[in-house]
Amino acid sequence: MRAPIGNFGEARPAADCLDELCPPVAAAVRAWEGAVPPEDALYVDTDPDKADTAVLAEAYGPGILEASANCVVVAGRRGGATTLAACVVLSTTRLDVNGTVRRHLAARKASFAPMDTAVGETGMEYGGITPIGLPADWPLLIDPAVVDRPYLVIGSGRRRGKLIVTGKVLAGLPGATLLDGLAS
Question: Where is the YbaK/aminoacyl-tRNA synthetase-associated domain positioned along the sequence (predicted)?
Fold first, then answer.
């Protein structure tokens, strides 16, 4: 089937592409539960050199920038404890790390997690981190504007390939919390 957005060419159900996904994402797709069927998550093959959002949008067509959501790993610190969380925001917005995220995590300080931490803790490649397959104990904070989108382009866990999902798929992920003010 053709991808519902962009110039990606063929789109296949993610459940049929488990070998193309990193292990944590493949495991999450295999164990899919929820109100939204797993067939609503599609996989499209992309050039790994074009994984970054702006380059992806330029390469794969109009509307991709507005239909992309980024999954950002954040580290909240209080005392000697660090809490890792994932935040999903539209790619055209900015994540409010020092305000909304910090307060939600009850942290004294919050910042983007270092790349080696994000990659090591998720088991995913930098530039492909996705909310599907994250560690179960992590908070998953989602900007409400994400949920209203009929199609979103998100990471697949690898730089090669993207997932196309609805906003409702993301809202139905385990541990997902819609958080007003997450992005501006």
Answer: 49-170
| Tally of residues, the chain | 184
The CATH number of residue 123's host domain is: 3.90.960.10
In this prediction the pTM is: 0.94
164, 48 Cβ separation under 8 angstroms: no
Instruction: Note whether 24 and 152 are within 8 A (CB).
Output: no
Convert the pLDDT of each residue in 84-111 to its tens digit. Answer: 999 999 999 999 999 999 999 999 999 9
Does residue 28 fall inside a structural domain? yes
Half-sphere exposure of residue 127: CA atoms within 13 angstroms, side-chain side: 15
Report how far Cα 71 is from the mean position of its chain's Cα atoms.
4
37 within a domain of the structure (yes/no): yes
